[in-house]
Amino acid sequence: MRRRPARAVWPFLLALVTACGADPPAPAEPTATVRLASYDFQENQILVEVYAEAVRRSGVPVSVQHGIGTREVVAPALQQGVVDVVVDYLGTALVFARPSFRDRPETPEEMRAVLRRVLGGRGVTVLEPSRAEDKNGFAVTTAFAAEHGVGRLSDLAPLAPRLTFGGPPECPDRPLCLPGLEEVYGLRFGEVRSLATRAETVEALLSGQIDVGLLETTDARLGVAPVMLLVDDLGLQPRENVVPLVRVEVVERWGNRLTDALDETSARLTTGDLVRLNRAVELEGLTPEEAAEQWWG
Q1: What pairs with residue 165 in β-bridges?
Q2: Are 167 and 210 in contact (CB under 8 A)?
Q3: CATH top-level class for 136-229?
Q4: 250, 221, 244: which is closest to 93 by C-alpha?
């Protein structure tokens, strides 16, 4: 995974300290550039480059900070004014912002409305979601599926105690990952392994180190490697439309030049585009910046 060197380490350390319960830092002063930040996985870095290029073309100065960390770091950084724009995923952003929200809205419009109300009190606005979606998916090899006759997540219930699951380090704590699999599907795996990247997950599946692994639904290796996603037949995963989250103060400063650029990008972006962008980076060797430039043409 290619990453740019961190260019603002101290502010993000402050955000991390705040997320862990320390006193918050003083509000950041307005900057001369709009600061976009990505999560610590490659697809999000690609998306940030796509949106950053749109903002850049609108004449608004931009800086990009990649691989800042997990949601626990990036969310408070946005709310405290350490960064200005985060490209997020609608359902996961809502679950994180309101973890105790039981009657989850189902449509992107309803989800955006709830998320906007929640984050509005934290100085963040939610722009128009795109048609592009990337959900958590759970994969097995095609050989495993044929041997055990599985095609749905619910088919794993009698097998799970004998299976090894592999996923990112945060998976045991995320409601849409292992806790959700246990609560919704009753899946209690015999062993759980922490895997740093999705490429490592695919390698572990193919080598038999794990039986089930987390792969996003837009992963570049799907259709290339002999792995398949199991159907989420009980609807654990929410809608996950790509959506920009922006500090209200930054919207007030830059106005329509900023929001139009972000909204126009969302209006153009599709799930197919997201798959192709991932393939360009993961399989063809482009950097996220190069893939974004190629997409814009």
Answers
A1: 192, 212
A2: no
A3: alpha beta
A4: 244
Decide: residue 93, CB within 10 A, 0-12 exposed, 13-18 middle, 19+ buried. buried
The domain locations on the chain are: 9-133+239-296, 136-229
Instruction: Quote the crossing angle between the two packed helices 71-79 and 9-19, to the nearest 10°.
Output: 100
CA distance 289 to 266: 18
Does 6 have pLDDT greater than 70? no
pLDDT digits (tens, 9 = 90+) for 61-119: 999 999 888 899 999 999 999 999 999 999 999 999 998 777 788 899 999 999 999 99
Decide if 9-133+239-296 and 136-229 have a common fold. yes
Q: What is the CATH class of 9-133+239-296?
A: alpha beta
